[in-house]
Design brief:
13% strand; 17 helices; five-stranded mixed sheet; globular; alpha/beta; 2 domains; binds pyridoxal-5'-phosphate; Aspartate Aminotransferase, domain 1
């Protein structure tokens, strides 16, 4: 990763300090709390961080979805929003921007990413089909399975090894893809997805070389390629930093080159749209687009607004251009890398190398004295909140552990991770320094931390509502 750091420095400035490339015009106060207060709050929430109120959190790293700070230009767009039911000017601006960057023929607006997924899979898949992806995001998998199809994860083996420093751990294993097509037959694979960046696989990017390779395999069988494009700008910028031949190419051109290999995409504007809501579905296929619009009218709205207000489409249109500004991306990657590198220096085992939107701490390796059955990730999340009012999220056995309905026995998840996701343009370096100081206290105290047991849980998606008790 030496090359990346060198490139970051070269791209930024001749100064060592990379600054936030914005001034703060509007502020939201943070309510400060003390540890004794937080102990009561967490106890009253039955130690479930999802039950803690946002006003009781000092630094909220629960998610980077829908949590971006909007720019003055975006707020101006909000005022300009044309709320006409049909043919609004806001849609025209939105569609023009999406076509300019993504290059697809049809742009179908939706209220967020999962609505685009639902429409795509409803129209393209049937029972028994198989959808390959590097790693399906949870809503993507759920929407594939809802159609009775099978979601296959084909990420390369490096992508499953947290310590491996391979620069493109989001890549699809092309050999596995070929084998899958041979095994199930091309007629059972209506499309192939690639998630850029690979959120469920630690936010790792996909290389241009891999996109080309996958497209080549698919072309042979006439299988269309779709991107789950939520973090397309972050992926494009990581290509610029890490892949030979892209150092001098503007990031927007890299994004366009990526998209040129695909037949369509789904997008959540809550990520790299720098907006608080919104999304879209794109395709080059006229017939599919017609069927997708018919379904859109049924559940989302008329094709010139989908599930969005005119003002939302304005915010997304502006956000999509701002997210490709290199000053912004330098800051974005540097902020995440700063958090990751300093956590690592403190001693925390993290998923390497740091991606763009989050840092993932390996809780099993941090707290080896707490077995997976006692949820080391949950223990770490709880202590981060107690130590500094910081909200992270467990991505381990609380989220993915499987309980056998008959025996009540639980199978643990493959990894016990804690994700610290970084909202876009929201926190400054001193906020991150504060997080690091709190994490250092947690690290020094780690041997005293205790596991948890679940005392109440729902049948599915239990992590949102489970109640815990410390051991
Ligand atoms: C967030 C996300 C989605 C779903 O988007 P929503 O706007 O939350 O519905 C799909 N795929 C990936 C990779 C995501 O990160």
């Amino acid at each position: 990763m030496e090359k990346e750091i060198h490139q970051l420095n070269k791209a930024g400035t001749t100064f060592r300090t990379i600054i936030e490339p914005f001034k703060i015009k509007s502020v939201e106060p943070i309510r400060m709390t003390f540890r004794a207060e937080r102990e009561k709050i967490l106890q009253n929430a039955f130690y479930n961080i999802f039950s803690v109120k946002a006003r009781d959190v000092i630094i909220d790293l629960l998610t980077d979805s829908g949590t971006s700070a909007m720019s003055a230009e975006q707020w101006s767009g909000i005022m300009r929003g044309d709320e006409s039911y049909a043919g609004s000017q806001s849609y025209e601006r939105f569609e023009k921007t999406v076509k300019d960057i993504f290059g697809f023929k049809h742009v179908i607006p939706t209220h967020q990413g999962r609505a685009a997924e639902r429409i795509l899979f409803s129209v393209m898949c049937k029972r028994g089909d198989v959808i390959p992806n590097n790693s399906h995001f949870d809503t993507t998998r759920a929407n594939v399975e809802f159609q009775g199809a099978v979601a296959e994860d084909l990420v390369i083996k490096e992508g499953l090894d947290p310590q491996n420093q391979y620069p493109f751990k989001g890549n699809v294993d092309a050999e596995k893809l070929k084998a899958l097509i041979k095994h199930v037959g091309k007629d059972k694979i209506p499309l192939c997805m690639i998630t850029i960046t690979n959120n469920s696989g630690g936010g790792q990017p996909v290389s241009m070389e891999n996109i080309r390779e996958v497209k080549k395999v698919l072309s042979k069988y006439n299988i269309p390629l779709y991107f789950d494009a939520c973090r397309f700008a972050e992926n494009a910028y990581l290509i610029k930093l890490r892949e030979d031949g892209y150092q001098d190419m503007p990031v927007k051109e890299i994004a366009k080159e990526m998209m040129a290999h695909a037949d369509g995409c789904t997008m959540s504007a809550k990520k790299d749209g720098l907006s608080n809501i919104g999304g879209f579905l794109c395709t080059n296929d006229d017939l599919l687009a017609q069927r997708e619009r018919d379904l859109l009218i049924l559940t989302e709205g008329f094709p010139t607004y989908g599930g969005m207000a005119g003002r939302d489409m304005e915010a997304v249109a502006v956000g999509l251009n701002e997210v490709l500004k290199e000053d912004y991306l330098i800051y974005r990657i540097a902020e995440t890398r700063y958090l990751g590198d300093h956590l690592y220096e403190t001693g925390f085992p993290i998923v390497q190398p740091p991606g763009a939107h989050a840092i993932y701490i390996d809780a099993k390796a941090t707290l080896p004295h707490i077995p997976p059955s006692q949820y080391p990730g949950q223990a770490l999340v709880a202590e981060l909140y107690l130590a500094g009012g910081i909200r992270g999220v467990e991505i381990g056995s609380v989220m993915f552990g499987k309980v056998d309905e008959k025996t009540g026995k639980e199978t643990s998840a493959a990894m016990e991770l804690v994700r610290l996701a970084i909202p876009r343009r929201v926190y400054t370096q001193s906020h991150i320094d504060y997080v690091l100081e709190a994490c250092k206290r947690v690290w020094e105290n780690r041997e005293k931390l205790k596991g948890f047991k679940i005392v109440k849980q729902a049948k599915s998606l239990r992590h949102f509502t489970a109640k815990f008790e410390p051991f």
